[in-house]
Design brief:
The protein is an alpha+beta fold. The protein has a single domain, classed as Trna Endonuclease, Chain: A, domain 1. The protein is built from three helices and five strands. It has a five-stranded mixed beta sheet with strand order 1-2-3-4-5. The longest helix has 27 residues. The radius of gyration is 15 Å and the shape is globular. The chain starts with a helix and ends with a strand. The mean pLDDT is 92.
């Protein structure tokens, strides 16, 4: 990978982490308890695992130019990987196995704009 490509990848990763921080703050303000961020497994990654009431939520965070682009960026393959990663999370955290499960998306459109939260994204 060239130096320019490495630099571009680093900037994208920084933007993505900033978007995850914004999403986490917004979710906490909405009453969610953040259980994990950047949960990585061999089968996939979950940006944010949160709990609200009796629901365990796997949340994918995207930063894009507009909401539609953010939602389109979550491919069926990625959805499957997130779903599989949630099963790994549950196997490591059996106390949450009795909760309902949901998959949400959070799209950050502007650098410090209010994130768009779509419940039941898939």
């Amino acid at each position: 990978m060239s130096g320019a490509q490495t630099e571009t990848k680093k900037r994208a990763e920084i933007r993505g982490r900033r978007a995850e921080v914004q999403a986490s703050l917004m979710l906490r303000l909405k009453g969610y308890r953040i259980l994990a961020r950047g949960f990585r497994t061999p089968v996939g990654e979950i940006d944010i695992v949160a709990k609200k009431g009796r629901t365990l939520v796997a949340i994918e965070v995207k930063q894009r130019a507009d909401i539609a682009q953010g939602l389109q960026a979550i491919s069926p393959r990625q959805q499957s990987r997130i779903s599989n990663a949630l099963q790994v999370y549950l196997s490591k955290n059996p106390a949450y196995q009795s909760l309902d499960q949901r998959f949400d998306a959070v799209v950050v459109v502007r650098k410090w704009g209010w994130p768009y939260h779509l419940k039941n994204a898939w």
